[in-house]
Amino acid sequence: MAFTNVATLKAQLATLTVTGVTTVFDHPMNQVNTAQLPIMFVGFPEIEEGVATFQSRPAQEIVTIELVILVGPALHNLNDANFDTSVDLMDALRDALVANADDFNLDKWNIKLSTNQLGDTTYWSVIATIIASGGVS
Q1: What is the DSSP letter of 76?
Q2: Contact 136/5 with Cβ under 8 angstroms?
């Protein structure tokens, strides 16, 4: 089922099963309990939509939204383990997106390894920027 609005896409992404992720939230986090890591949450969306005209085809809503997986604290003595886990989670996230691309009406995505600051802690993070197209205006 294609998404009809941002709220629907957010809800769909929050149901995504990614191997290795233990906890999922449908919103960005303020702080985390490290016992719950790796944590996945739906991040900030952006909407792009053109104006429908008589000369062109109807406008189509395009949504870009982040999906973030916090892997572990960015501590020097955990870098090797966090890197390896992050790479595994990148593969698992890609597999989950491929498996659900048609149902969620996903057009493309970019997955990168980065860091994310929550509270006083910096976390290794896998961040997917997902682009989906929705209903026609």
Answers
A1: G
A2: no
